[in-house]
Amino acid sequence: MPETVLVTGGAGFIGSHTCVELLDHGYEVVTVDNYVNSSPQALDRVAKIARRPLTAAYDVDVRDRKALSEVFASHPVDAVIHFAAHKAVGESVSLPTEYYDTNVGGTCALLSVMREHRVHRLVFSSSCSVYGDAETVPLTEDSPVAPTNPYACTKLMCEHILQDVCARLSEMKVLALRYFNPVGAHPSGLLGEAPRGIPNNLMPYVAQVAVGRREKLSVFGDDYPTPDGTGVRDYIHVMDVAEGHRVAVEHLDDHTGMQVFNLGTGTGTSVLQLISAFSEVSRRPVPHQVVERRAGDVAALVADASAVATAWRWSTTRDLTAMCRDTWRFQELNPDGYSPDLVHAGPKTGELSCG
Ligand code: UFG
């Protein structure tokens, strides 16, 4: 019997790419998503790329314990990958309650339903933002954590909850993956990042400027203590992130309890470097203007990626050029994202950004 993996936030940017990777490796895949910042159309494209269907796709909010429990009752779930969450740093500063409610409340609901159905294997979406304003990079999993915004606080709080649950339930096996900055798209150009409204993150914004959908990019500060003064991040191709999740599922039984791993490349790229790489690949100008720093931002976040390399004998393979090339292909083929007529109206949570 193939393993069944339940993916929360399965229609989202990272979720949809991970579904393709799981289907390609023979898993049965069940998705749960409330489509508040994603489109069911992404799941049709997942099936098209993988040339086989998902086992099931549910329009369910992870906080709805009753509905979630019915999903677990309908499938022999072997492992869960929990992506469903809001994910924008700036937005979390203005909407903290919504972030705690969805990210922390959603994780608690999922854990109680997993327990009810005796499912003990979980891969959790955490974030490099838990490290906060790091004095030195690269960051190992043992670097101090000091979140600087509500989004990062929700991720660290979920890690603490998972640690406490693992201490109480000896059968639990949890891998928390602290992703650095996922960007890029599936090389087919069928799947990619299609945020609702104005993009919060750098790469989709740059892509929309290059394609002419937005006039210019605001560069949030050029007075950081970095080589060119703009923020430095460790951008990681979403295909590598997806592969990392599949490999994580394969390693869930290595240990009981909770383990934390960075998912990054180990290479830092500044905002100006990313703009220049994207311009080169797309052969389009990316007009930009330096503005004030964004609330909650930090100077530099770069992974020490050696722990997964040692534990799983796995590391990322795609570089910045591939990240820009695949983002651009998706942007050119889908200038307006997924078709609006197929986009679910979703609950009334406005423009919140979900993972
Ligand atoms: N930036 C700009 N202009 C923009 C958007 C971003 O200059 O319009 C800068 C930011 O100041 C930062 C860099 O680009 O220096 C990256 O910003 P993002 O918003 O793309 O990503 P963050 O580093 O804020 O990271 C957050 C979370 C990560 C998550 C990532 C992608 O901390 O966990 O978003 O969702 F992976």
CATH fold type: Rossmann fold
Biggest sheet strand order reads 3-2-1-4-5-6-11
Number of DSSP-assigned strands: 14
Low-confidence stretches: 341-355
Class computed from helices, strands and strand pairing: alpha/beta
- The CATH architecture classification is 3-Layer(aba) Sandwich
In DSSP terms (H or I, runs of 4 or more residues), the helix count works out at 11
Order of helices and strands: EHEHEHEHHEHEEHEEEHEEHEEHH
Distance between the termini: 30 Å
Compute the number of structural domains. 1
**What's the gyration radius in Å?**
19 Å
Structure description:
- This protein has a single domain (4-333), classed as NAD(P)-binding Rossmann-like Domain (Rossmann fold), CATH 3.40.50.720.
- Strand 2, helix 2 and strand 3 (56-59) form a beta-alpha-beta unit.
- The chain has 355 residues and is an alpha/beta fold.
- 52% of the residues are buried.
- The strands form four sheets. Strands 3-2-1-4-5-6-11 form a seven-stranded parallel beta sheet, with helices on both faces. A three-stranded mixed beta sheet has the order 12-9-14.
- The chain has helices spanning 13-24, 40-50, 65-74, 89-94, 96-116, 150-168, 202-210, 238-250, 271-282, 306-312, 320-333, and strands at residues 4-8, 28-33, 56-59, 79-82, 121-127, 173-179, 181-183, 217-220, 232-233, 235-237, 257-263, 269-270, 288-291, 300-301.
- It contains eleven helices and 14 strands.
- The radius of gyration is 19 Å and the shape is globular.
- The structure holds uridine-5'-diphosphate-4-deoxy-4-fluoro-alpha-D-galactose.
- Uridine-5'-diphosphate-4-deoxy-4-fluoro-alpha-D-galactose is lined by residues 87, 89, 127-129, 179, 181-182, 200-202, 205, 217-220, 231, 233, 271, 294, 297.
